[in-house]
Amino acid sequence: MQALDHQQRLFMVESDQIYRAWLDALHHARAYRYGMRWISSKGRQYLVRLHDAFGNGKSLGLRNAETEARFAAFQEGKVRAEARLASLAARMKEQARLNRALRLGRLPNVVGDILLGLAAARTAHDFCVVGTHAIHGFEAMAGVHCRMELLASGDVDLLYDPRRQLSLVARKLDGHGLLGLLRKVDPSFAPLRDTPFRAANDKGFMVDLVIPERDIRETEQVSFGQEDLVAVEVPNLHWLVNAPKHDVIAVAADGRPVMMRVPDPRAFALHKAWLSERPDREPVKKVRDRAQAVLIAQMIQSWLPALEFDPAQLRYFSAEMLRQAQAVLGEEPGLKLPGMSF
Fold this sequence. Notes:
Helix 4 (about 135-140) packs parallel to helix 9. This protein is an alpha+beta fold. It is globular and about 80 Å long. The strands form 4 sheets. Strands 5, 7, 8, 9, 10 and 11 form a 6-stranded mixed β-sheet that branches. It is about 45% helix and about 20% strand. This is Nucleotidyltransferase-like domain-containing protein.
């Protein structure tokens, strides 16, 4: 691991600030996107506030001085919102240029595009990145860069908590589902025939929609629209879905700041350590799991010491799982984690 220098850390802080301001401006501007209009009915005009792309809306009353003032205020607000968004979009573009110059870009652009799409749809908090790409979020938290060979991955895993209300997320995605959002990023994304939880683009990059294993009585499919991806249940992901989450600003390869929700790095390290000992895990993945577990544990030890491995703070893990993970990490020379005795 290599620590970021002072200039890189400054740009990371500025990226965080600019991104959050830009996202707020984007959501504010999008509140105006369907607009208001006058509709005639039986010889009278009514002001209607539209709330979807299909022309559905709510009447605000007959045309009079009050509704005309309301319409004018709406139009003025829309102009101001669009101007603020354009200004911050220009700031984002300039910050991306600066980030590229200092080689801060780490996250593959396709992942950055997906995360930006989720954020624009107000669903960034509904999905958590739990696979290898989560390490980019941990890098941002710690202010370090890791060896790229441990970060390379041709897919991204999006974890959804099935306890959330599906209809709310489906509404945010305009009824087109997660697949519809992916196709806005890259029209070549398509579900794989035998794996309905997975979509791939024409470059072979894959997106998996995963949920923790549920009670056998829960049979409703987790999907956000017709012909959308259908989540696959993965055993033992309940540890990650119940772990605390962090919303961090990472930097895509082209320099753009993007927000990603990741599990607590302690949960990631312990889960990867546990996976590396599973007898049903593919051998090639077990080696990588262990290396990533040690990497994040070392990162926490050196750069995030406030995150103690206190069992009282890790109650979402079983005692047996903690024991197995501790045995794996305890074999690493020099690794001493606060709260756990190796």
